[in-house]
Amino acid sequence: MNCNEALVLISAAVDGELSITEEQHFLQHLSKCGECYSEFEEAQKTKMIIREIIVRFNAPQTLINSVMQLTSLSQKETS
Amino acid sequence: MDNPDPAHQRKYLQTHESLSPAEHQKQIEFQNEAVVHLNALYNYALHITMNPDDAADLVQETYLKAYRFFNSFERGTNCKAWLFKILKNNYINLFRKNSKEPGKVDYDLIKDFYHSIKDTRSDTTETDSDYFHSMLHEEVYQALLSLPEEFREVIQLCDIEGFTYEEIANMVDSPIGTVRSRLFRGRKILRAQLEGYARTYGFTTDTDQ
User: Fold this and answer.
1) In CA terms, which of A59, B65, B109, B186 is 20 to 30 Å from B55?
2) Residue B14 contacts A where some CB pair is shorter than 8 Å
3) Mean pLDDT (chain A, rounded)
4) Complex ipTM, two decimals?
């Protein structure tokens, strides 16, 4: 595997979505190529930055209530 | 506060008494399997509609449908993925049909959305809000929001919600290979932008120095 082939796989490698064969060849290349190895580390960091940066909200109480009610209401409708 | 309205109580009891054991079982199962994902669904809806009211409508509609078709949910598979798929379809039916063209980015909407969520978050702890109010956060977050929808969507589903490629492929009605290449391309665009900001603000992700 050369650098170009390895670079294409980095994104899927970060997600643990390489096939077994791909992973073998990919890891083999990383063990020999420092540049691709640091690219891989960068990609992992980017994934972490995205995870941290997205703001998580709590659903508003009114929505929670209506979803809870929904299940029993639609029950009445269908019965 | 007030005494509970007896008529209301009676009605409530009647509704519940009239449930067959099977229906009651379905309700409990639905609470445990589906309703637990309400927050995740709401956050996803918020990020695709960029409007809290639309997001709430979308989630409510999703649960209504999910409950109606809960029998067709394949037990033992990922219920969260099943709900996201329903939400996605609802979104296309309710909002996308007659509004903006797919893939088109509305920068004003993104700016408004960012500032409205920033305001609602002003009650967080100091460290949090310091970070949140920093320029870096604003620009990186906006960079993510500004990605063309087909890229942002898969990044969100993968990085934030932790779905597998197979689950995402099913949600966006595309082959796994397409999901894989969208993630690859989307991240490439995003990283180029992150590097731009890193340079501007003297923030670097390099470790080897």
Assistant:
1) B186
2) no
3) 86
4) 0.85
